[in-house]
Amino acid sequence: MSVLLKSPEKEKGKKIAMLLGAVSFGGGERVLERVAKDLLERGESLIIYTYRREWLDAIADLGDRAEVRLLKKRPTMLRKPASFIEIRRALQQDRPDLLLTFEQELAETAIPAARSLGVPTIISERCDPRFFPARKIHRALRRLTFSLADAIIFQTPQVRDWFGPRLARKGTVIPNPILDRNLKDPVPWEKRDRLIVSAGSLDTLKNQASLIRAFGRLEAEDWRLVIYGEGESRPELEKLVRELGLQGRVILPGKVSRVVDHIAYARIFVLTSRCEGLPNALTEGMAMGLACISTDFPSGGARMLIEPGRNGLLVESDTRRRPVSEPDERLERRLVEAMRSLIRDDSLARRLGESAVEVRQRFAAPQIIDRWQRLISSLTERNGG
Fold it and tell me: Which residues of the chain fall short of a pLDDT of 50?
């Protein structure tokens, strides 16, 4: 039985149900929050289902047009039947025009429940499917779940095509919008510091160890490296910094709010991920006019953002996950070459940064939300909504 926590005063527009799970507020949750707010501003109504009380504070500012239901049966493998029944009852009671979910584990029960009631469904694939989910059972359930969904949102054409023609046909590529609603103008180049920055969870997939090692080989004593974020690899990364004698030059300040403001005065942004979808951190670095370097991971997300030599640089990388203690000589050599080229040729770095700002127009939220709204309308109208 779900618990009703908050209801809208009145209804207008379409009634869209969203199912929320994780509360880490990584890229996927931030995109979902932005989409939700923009749809509300356009007159749609939202019903938000969640198993996590932490979301109540996170979505408190959505206003009176958001209805929140706290569910009790999280869909672990053993509790999927009970979860299916609970979600189906909630959907039957609320009668939304459409159900949207970002998280596959939740979709495994929610999409069949919605389909049994004739409620159109959208699932948004946020990760590189070559790597996630890790468990074989969830990989098998993913294909079944996606086949039951009415539409699938992919972040890049490469990820869409990976699923094969049958699922690709019901897929739509919609990239992430620029998430920050109060994005400041880029800092003039001459006012920027000799600073390289990165942002993301501190873990072996984001691979900050390679960036730290490469930075240590730059022989650029007047430059600093700041890596924003928190995660399980922090102790090992701090140890690596000490071993390389980079204390004071490599800084790990942790997770901060509004990363865009913290990186504004930097000159170079570097992303070293083994895998990504469409990385918000890279988009924000480009939007702030930094000269950006990124690994060319298989999802095509970096290549969707960067045209090498025009608005950034791409470096080749394999996808093997390595422990922090294991160097990746090839990648680190390429990172050294890329960073060194920007440090030595300030006019090149400046030109790349100035061109990178174009992402503000390419991924502006209004035009991205237009695409979400068109997809939602096409499904609800097809269903007689």
Answer: 1-11
